[in-house]
Design goal:
Blueprint lengths: L4 E7 L7 H15 L5 E9 L1 H12 L7 E10 L2 E10 H11 L3 H16 L10 H12 L6 H6 L2
Parallel strand pairs: 1-2, 2-4
Antiparallel strand pairs: 3-4
Helix pairs in contact: 1-4, 3-4, 4-5
Length: 155
């Protein structure tokens, strides 16, 4: 079977990642959300606290490290459709995984789902629960722990 979704990886920390799981998640999201017949891909960057803090300050004017950032950039090129970039802070993800008692792979998957939905236009800060609902549907499909949106609501 030919792959129709790809992750272009920039793993700045050279840590092991659950790439097969992330590709399955991306494929699941894309087949339910995006109808173009072109092959789709997302850039995934794995960074540390310092890099994420610098990016958050530069692009959001918030001088703190965060867990995930998304940069939508819909671009079609030949047979490919680029959705944008998801940046995951590995150090933050590791702390959250320990805090909530699940694996780092599960936390990376949660962040990837959250960020990828942002690439597709979901915005939990401005919607009426659509991002949270879609995130929960995907999380349930992959038997993952509590979503970021749900955790944020509990704070």
């Amino acid at each position: 079977m030919e792959k129709h979704c790809f992750i272009e990886l920039d793993n700045q920390l050279n840590i092991p990642l659950p790439l097969l799981l992330l590709e399955k998640i991306l494929s699941h999201i894309i087949t339910t959300e995006h109808q173009s017949t072109k092959k789709k891909y997302v850039e995934l960057l794995i960074v540390d606290d310092t890099t994420m803090k610098n990016m958050n300050k530069k692009y959001r004017h918030i001088d703190l490290a965060t867990d995930v950032l998304s940069f939508p950039l819909i671009h079609e090129d030949g047979q490919y459709f680029f959705l944008g970039s998801v940046v995951i802070n590995y150090e933050y993800a590791l702390r959250e995984a320990q805090k909530y008692g699940h694996s780092i792979d599960e936390e990376i998957a949660l962040l990837f789902i959250h960020g990828t939905l942002h690439l597709l236009g979901y915005d939990h800060e401005n919607d009426y629960g659509e991002h949270r609902q879609k995130e929960q549907e995907i999380i349930s499909s992959f038997c993952l722990p509590m979503s970021l949106c749900v955790r944020t609501e509990q704070i």
